[in-house]
Amino acid sequence: MKKKLLTIFGILLVTLFIIYNVGIDIGSLHLGKRTDDIEVNNQYDIRSSDFYKQFLSTDQLVVVNLWATWCQPCVEEMPMFLELQKEFPDVRFATLSIDKDSGKLKDFLMKNKSLPDVTLQNAAYRKAIRNFLENRSEKSLIYTEIVPITYFIKSGKVVKKIEGSMDKKKITSIIGSLK
């Protein structure tokens, strides 16, 4: 009897370990590890993306902020970027999230009026966009998840990259020097 209970307990532990590390969907309930449901169909030709059409095919200065809902400094920067967007109407601003859970990202964006976030409409191109921002080949693997990072793009090329949080004075100075 004791041997039978230990066997059942062992099987139960192994099953729970697998569910926790792999994840399982039971109807609308998800147990265990989440997969990246935003990047379901990777596309690598960035020229086909809305991001390219809206932000890279222009001569305007473009400021793209890489962020995540779980990153407190990222969330704290959002109001500053909104202010800058109003102060510099000739500069294009956008955000790109590295979040892996589209539901959580959608909820956050609905609750917080933020910059135009291009993540969901460019989900299939997110890796290609990040590779462009980092000047890597379109199909490169992404190894780091550092946020916040702000990229300054002029004439379709990244001309400056700042890792970490920035204050309004610093970003205003950078915008002024690049315009």
UniProtKB/TrEMBL annotation:
PROSITE patterns with a match to the protein in the record:
THIOREDOXIN_2 (PS51352)
Task: Identify the Pfam families for this entry.
Answer: AhpC-TSA
Thioredoxin domain: residues covered? 29-179
SUPFAM superfamilies from the UniProt entry: Thioredoxin-like
Keywords of this protein's UniProt record, alphabetized? Isomerase
Q: One MF term from GO for this chain? A: isomerase activity
Which N-terminal residues, if any, form the signal peptide? Answer: none
Q: What is this protein called?
A: Thiol-disulfide isomerase or thioredoxin
Q: Which organism is it from?
A: Epilithonimonas hungarica
